[in-house]
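Hey team,

Filing this mostly as a record. A colleague (T.K.) asked me to run one chain through the structure pipeline before their review meeting, and I want the input and output archived in the tracker in case anyone asks later how it was produced. No errors, nothing strange. Just documentation.

Input sequence:
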Amino acid sequence: MQETLQLLIELQEIERKIKILAEDKARAPKEIAALEEKKAEAETRLEDKKMILESSKKLRRDLEREVEDLEGRKAKSKQKLLEVKSNKEYQATLKEIDDIGELVRGREDQIIEQMENADDLDSQIREQKLLVAEAIKKLEEEGTQLEKEAKKADSLMMSLEEQKEQLKPKIPSDLLQKYQFLRDNRAGVALAPVKRGTCGVCNMNLPPQTFIDLQKNETMMNCPNCQRIIYWTGHEAYKQSSQLE
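Output structure:
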């Protein structure tokens, strides 16, 4: 009985390791995708800032052309001022010159604002370029490492699967079926170690006599609560195999 139970413990430990490796391998593509997404987001933010800067520069050019047009109108109005005949026309022309001057000052203020905005955007773009480079580097380095780890996990899983297939024929078929049933219906854990009279999985205290019988190691026993196959970790044969110890 001890040898058979030991084989079951080894089988469960192998399957536990396979499960962990499979989960680690499954995380790799997700983590790589997350890194790619961060890189894409950084690149998108960079392009957005470049577009905003280009819009700011275009607005500045438009404002500068408008100032040129206004200055041209202002010059014509000043020339007109020399040619007016009446005081009324003179005052109207002066007002026209003042109005144009006010428009010019407003546009010049906007030009200064766009120049300052462009300087700020230039700084942001430089910073964003660094973030893009960092995201690319992180993707390359961590992505490569994750791919290596996934390949290593594949190799280890293949080795463990071979060990598993070599182990299964050594276990009586009826007991193997019971193990598989418990594994499939008890959250992937068919065997539970018992320490200090407590089931190591469901944490229920065993009845005193059950614990005494378990320590004798004479027959296969189940936890009265969760029905998993139980073994006492105090036995030297089971100590090293108990994953919860």
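Quick notes for T.K.: The beta strands are 191-195, 198-199, 221-222, 229-232. Residues 172-239 form one domain.
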